[in-house]
């Protein structure tokens, strides 16, 4: 059964999550200057199997170093239980904003991981960090509705590259739109962040194409995306933030709502459109983003 935690864990809005291979010492020095909302120390795909053992103490040091510099730090562990148990050993959990568990296909995987996190944190007199479950396979996408209710989760992630690879097709919207919508709908149904895109993040040089993919991701309902290169960070931050026009509209909506409340009205007409509670909440969320 899923762990019962109260309240449900959450993160401040995260638009961009920049991956840092645990063994890439040379990337740490400037990592906190890249503008990413969060930094992800990676022990999974970025680390070859024969370097996992070497990478673990480097990951622990990276987490401590980045946290000491004020960064919001996440850790991506390996998907196999035998490996993530080693990944967590000695990890300074108190410095982690969340832990990413990849290749999730069943609620039982999340539960086992959450139990291990909770046990390790309790032994140190701490609260466990929340979990971001990464759904990256056809089975994982189909299980999204069963995984999302787990109360240890703060986010779902959609792995477009892995999903497309499982299908044997390019990571393009034709193959990715439905699974992306499945994951993000389940995430929003349970109040979770949802990180991902219905397209590739691997092509670093196609700025225009990546910008279009990010805009489409926000329009679908994703709340942010991982980045594999620093030059992607400003594109993601910009793409998942309200535009100046949207902020101005949101401010007008809030002013109209205040006037309606003062007049004892539940809704008000603004620019020929009825402004009611769902629209006011969207405006409130947009204004909560940093300018």
Task: Explain what this protein looks like in three dimensions.
This protein has 291 residues and is an alpha/beta fold. It folds into 2 domains: 226 residues, Alpha-Beta Barrel (TIM Barrel), CATH 3.20.20.60; 41 residues, no CATH class. 45% of the residues lie in helices and 15% in strands. It has 12 helices and 10 strands. The protein has an 8-stranded parallel sheet. The protein has a two-stranded antiparallel sheet with strand order 9-10. Helix 3 runs parallel beside helix 4 and helix 11 crosses helix 12. The N and C termini lie far apart (41 Å).
Give keywords.
291 residues; two-stranded antiparallel ribbon; alpha/beta; TIM Barrel; single chain; 12 helices; 2 domains; globular; eight-stranded parallel sheet
Topology (SSEs and partners):
Blueprint lengths: L15 E6 L3 H4 L9 E5 L9 H17 L4 E4 L4 H8 L7 E6 L5 H17 L7 E5 L2 H5 L1 H4 L5 E6 L1 H8 L5 H17 L3 E3 L11 H14 L4 E3 L5 H7 L4 H19 L5 E3 L2 E3 L1 H12 L3
Parallel strand pairs: 1-2, 1-8, 2-3, 3-4, 4-5, 5-6, 6-7
Antiparallel strand pairs: 9-10
Helix pairs in contact: 3-4, 11-12
